[in-house]
Amino acid sequence: MALTVGVDIGGTKIAAGVVDEEGRILERVKLATPKDSGQVAATIAEAVNTVRQNHEVEAVGLGAAGFVSADRATVLFAANMSWRNEPLRDRIADLVHLPVVVENDANVAAWGEARFGAGNGVDNVVMLTIGTGVGGGVIIDGRLLRGHFGIGAELGHYRVQPGGLLCGCGQHGCLEQYASGSALTRLVKAGAARNPEKAKLLLSLGDGTPEGIAGSHITLAAREGDPVALEGFAEVAVWIGQAMADMTAILDPGVFILGGGVSEAGEILAAPAREHYHTVAPATGQRPLAEVVTATLGPDAGIIGAADLARDR
Amino acid sequence: MALTVGVDIGGTKIAAGVVDEEGRILERVKLATPKDSGQVAATIAEAVNTVRQNHEVEAVGLGAAGFVSADRATVLFAANMSWRNEPLRDRIADLVHLPVVVENDANVAAWGEARFGAGNGVDNVVMLTIGTGVGGGVIIDGRLLRGHFGIGAELGHYRVQPGGLLCGCGQHGCLEQYASGSALTRLVKAGAARNPEKAKLLLSLGDGTPEGIAGSHITLAAREGDPVALEGFAEVAVWIGQAMADMTAILDPGVFILGGGVSEAGEILAAPAREHYHTVAPATGQRPLAEVVTATLGPDAGIIGAADLARDR
Amino acid sequence: MALTVGVDIGGTKIAAGVVDEEGRILERVKLATPKDSGQVAATIAEAVNTVRQNHEVEAVGLGAAGFVSADRATVLFAANMSWRNEPLRDRIADLVHLPVVVENDANVAAWGEARFGAGNGVDNVVMLTIGTGVGGGVIIDGRLLRGHFGIGAELGHYRVQPGGLLCGCGQHGCLEQYASGSALTRLVKAGAARNPEKAKLLLSLGDGTPEGIAGSHITLAAREGDPVALEGFAEVAVWIGQAMADMTAILDPGVFILGGGVSEAGEILAAPAREHYHTVAPATGQRPLAEVVTATLGPDAGIIGAADLARDR
Amino acid sequence: MALTVGVDIGGTKIAAGVVDEEGRILERVKLATPKDSGQVAATIAEAVNTVRQNHEVEAVGLGAAGFVSADRATVLFAANMSWRNEPLRDRIADLVHLPVVVENDANVAAWGEARFGAGNGVDNVVMLTIGTGVGGGVIIDGRLLRGHFGIGAELGHYRVQPGGLLCGCGQHGCLEQYASGSALTRLVKAGAARNPEKAKLLLSLGDGTPEGIAGSHITLAAREGDPVALEGFAEVAVWIGQAMADMTAILDPGVFILGGGVSEAGEILAAPAREHYHTVAPATGQRPLAEVVTATLGPDAGIIGAADLARDR
C-alpha cells in the first residue's frame, strides 16, 4: 500500500500527515511556523521526518500559499512569507530524500475535497475556499487546473464590481473584497455598531464592542439566530451565488464545494448562496446546474490533497 | 493519411470541408441553411456527401451554435434554430454512415485556432469569439474544456457589471452586452449621431445615416482612421482587456486568441485590448501574462476545428 | 391681465404661444426651424410677432436646448444648433422690442408643469423629462433651480454606473444611458430580435424588423399588452425609480413629475418606477416619500413655462 | 447688535456659543451629552442659559444629527439618540423662553461655512461633511436647501455603486460607504495589514497593529508622507471627486466645501479630489466648474451656522 506525506504550510503552523490511497491520515504532527522564513524549510523537513518514522512513504506533497510555478518546483511569490522564487521542491527533497511536489494551498485543499471529501465521485469540481481571503481550486475532467504559468484558479481575483473596492492584489473590485471572511467581519461589525441591541447575542461573545467581534463569534451567533450575524452571511452569500453563476458560465462544473473557515457555518452560508445561484445562473431553466455542497474534510483537506497529488505526480 | 470532414452549421449557410491531419482543407462546399429546421440535417448530410466523394474520410465533426450535451450527441438548445434536445449526432450518422461528433461552434473554432492557427503550439489557450455576441473556447493542457454538462466556456455570459444591461440570456450585465459586435455597432451609431461631421468617412460607407452603419463599415472606417470608429473599438477593447484579466485569474492561459468578425480589425482591437489587459491583470508585475493574438484562420476555423475534434474522438 | 409669450425652440420646429396668468395658451403658432442656425433668431421673432398681433404682451420667454448662462441672456452651448455663446436674449429683444429671458428647455417644461400642470400646488418639485435623452428641472421652495453657472438640474448626467456606458457628454455611466427613450428603444429592439414571436404585435406596427421599431410603436404596443414592450418599460422604470431615490436623498422634493415622450405611456412607466422608488429610497419606512405623477401639459409645458418665467423675471 | 445662541448637539458633547452678526463666537460652553436621551433637553437649556448670562440674545438655533421636520420644530429620527418625533423646538423654547429653530447638524455646519467660512460670498454652495459618515449641506441662491419634508441634502445616501456595499440606511452602494472616514480607516487598516513595512510610520502612532490605527493617526501619518495613509486618501478622493461631478450635474454650485474630520487633512484630500473632479465632471471643457476648498471654521461651524439660522428665521 503506497503511502505519501502531505504538508500544509500555514502562516502560523505547519501540519503534516501520512496519508494512504483512500485519503486517510494515519499519523500526523503540527509544528509552529518559524518567524524567520529562512527556517521554514527545516521545519517542514522536521515535520515530514517525524511522521514518516513508522511508515514507508514514497513521496511528499507540499501545499503553500502563493504562486507556484507550473513545474511545481518553485514558490514564485508568497504574501505571508518573504519567499520570492523559492526553490522549495529541491530544498525539501534534499532534506528528506524523497520526491517532492509543491502546489498552491487552495489547489491542494480542492483536490483533497474533490477526491475524498464533498466532491467524491465528480470529475468537474470548483471549490471556493472562503477564509480571510477567497481562494479557489478547479478540477476539470478529473485533472487539477494549474494554468499555463501555474497560477490558475485564483478565483478570488476576478473582477466582480467595476470601480469596486481596492484589493490587496492592487486591482479594484475583486471577488475577495466581497465574499471573504474579512468582508463578512466588516459587515457584521458595522451592523453591530449601528444596532447593538439587535446584535446583543453576538456582542456577548467578545468584549462587548463591535471591534471585539471575531470571525468565530459570527458563526456561533448565527447558529443561535443572531439577526446581525445572519444578515452578514446573507450578504456574502449573494456574492458567492453570483460567483458560482459566473463559474458555471465559464467552467460548467458538476459540483461547487464551499470550503474555508467561513464555510464551517454550513447551510447558513450554503443555503442562501445556492438560492441566489439558482436565480442568477446563465440561461436559468434551460440548462442543468451544479450541486452546491459544503466541504467535509475541514482543515485536513490540505494534508490529504497534497499527499494525493504527490502520489499522482 | 486520415481525413475527416468538418461542418460549420450557421444560421444562413452550412459550410463543410475535408480536412487532413495538418489542418488543411482539401475540398469544400457551402450550402444555404434551410429555413425549416427539420430540413437542416438533410442539408448537412448533403454537404458531407458532396465533399467526401473524392476522399476517404473516417469521421465527421459538426460545429453548432447552442448548448451541446456532454456526450457530444445532442443539441440541447439553440437560439437560431428551433432545435430542442435534437439528437443531431445519430441523425447525421444515420445519413452519412460515419462516426459523428457534435460540438459547440465557438468551441470548434477555438480548437481549430489552438491547433492549427494563432495558438499553434500552446497547450493552454482561451479564445474569445467576438461576433454578434461573444463566444468562448478554452483549451487546458491540450484538452478542450467541455464542462460537466457540456456547456462550459460560455465566456460571453459571466457578469461584468452588477445591475448592468439586460442580456438575451435573461440575466443582467453579461460580458456579451459590452464586448460584442452589437455593442460596437451601438457605440459607433451613437457616436455618429452625436457628431456626424467627425464620422463623415464612416457615414459615407453606408446610406449616410447613423442607422445605416453596418459592422463591416466600422472596421473599414477604423482602418482609414475614422475617429468615431476608432473610439468604438477603444471602448470595446477595454472590456476585452478586463475579460482577459478575469480569465487570467481563473484559467491562467498562455495565449488569448481574439476571433470572430470584430477581430478582423486586427491590431485596431488587439492593441488597446492588450494594453488594458496589462494594466488590470491580477498581481500585475508579479506574474507572467498571456500573449494576446488575433485569429488567423478566419471563418475556416470552424470547419478545421470540427474535423480535428472528430479525429480526436 | 398680463400676458406673455412663451417660445419652445426645438430642433425641427419653433412653437410660440401667448399665455395668460393662469397658464392658458390664448393663441399659438408653429414654424419650421431653419437649417441655418443663423436664421433661427429671425424665425423666433417671426413666431413672437405672429402670436402677439391680437394681444397686449409684456415679455417673452424662450426655452432652448443647451446650456444657458446664469443671467439668462446667452446660450453657452447647444448640441442641436451651432450656437456657442449666442447672445440670444439681446438678439431677440432687438427684434421684438420686449423684455426677453432665455432658459433651458427642460427647465421651462418643469416650471410649466410645476406651476400649471402635474405639480400644481407643490413648492418642491423634480421633473424628469424622458425623451431621446434625459433632462431635468428642479423647483425648490417655489423657485427654479438654475445653478451658479446656469447649468443645474442636468439630471441625465450624474453617474449611476461606474464603468458604465459611454455617454454623449464624454463621461461613462450617466443616467441618460439607462433611463432615456433611446435606452428603451435599444432594449426593445434587442428583445424583439431575440424573440420575434413574442414581439409579434410590436413588430406589426413597423416594417416587421426589429430595426424598424420606433419609439411611438413601443408605447402603443405596451398599451396592448405586448410583453417585449412591457419588459422594456420595466427595465427603464427601475432606473427611473433609482434616480428618484437618489434625488430624494439630495433634494427631498414633494412630487416627482415624469415628462417627455416616454412618459406618454403614463402608468405603464410610472407604476413600476414608483414601486421601485419605494423599495430603494433612502431610510425607507422612516421618512415620507414624494408623490410620483405623470406630466399633464404634454408638449405645451415648454411654451407655458417659458411664458411664465418671463412674467416672473 | 443682535446676538443669538447656536448649539451643536453631538453624541458625546453639547457645545453652545453666543454669536454675533459677523459670525464671531463671543462666549462659549461645552457640556457632556447625558447618556439618557430624556435629559438632553435640560442640558441644552443649561448650556444656553450659561452662555447668555452676559449677553442680550434674541433666539436660539439648534443643530441636531438626524431628520428634522420641514417646520424646523421636531427631530423625526436620530440614529445616535433614542429620539423619535421629538418636539425639540418647543421643549427648549419652554426652558429658555426664547424663539428656537432646529436644524440638521450637517446643514448648520454648511450654513456656517457658507456664510462666514470657506464659502464666504458665494450664493451657491455644496458642503460635504466627511466624518464617520458623509453628511451634506446645500445652499442655493443664498438659501439653505431643506427639502419638502425637511430631509434634503443627505448627500451621503445617494447610490454611487449598483450592487454596492450595504449601508446603515438599509440600502446598498451609498456614497457614505466609499467616501467617509470609516471607509478611509477600513482602507488604511487593510493596507497596513498587507504591508506593515510600508506603513511603519502609521503603525508607530498607535499600538503597532493595523486594528489599532485611529482616524487621527491617518491624517498625521499622511502629513509625514506615509505611503499607505496617502493611498487611503487618494482612494477616498476619487469618490469625493465623482460626488462633486454628480452634484455639479444636479446642483451646479459655485463652490464645494470639504468639511468634517477627514477634511482636516486639507490639500492631502482636496488636491486629488479636485483633480478627479476636473476629469469626470459633466461636459468637461464646455462649462465652468466649481471651486473646491476646505472648511475653515473647524468644529465651530455648527455653532456659528445654527446661531445664524436662528437670526435668519
TrEMBL record, chains A, B, C, D:
Keywords: ATP-binding, Kinase, Nucleotide-binding, Transferase. One of its GO terms (molecular function) is glucokinase activity. InterPro entries: ATPase_NBD, ROK, ROK_cs, ROK_glcA. The keyword Transmembrane does not apply. Its EC number is 2.7.1.2. One of its GO terms (cellular component) is cytoplasm. It comes from the Bacteria. Pfam families: ROK. One of its GO terms (biological process) is glycolytic process. It is an enzyme of class 2 (transferase). Gene3D superfamilies: 3.30.420.40. Belongs to the ROK (NagC/XylR) family. NCBIfam families: ROK_glcA_fam. This is Glucokinase. It comes from Actinospica durhamensis.
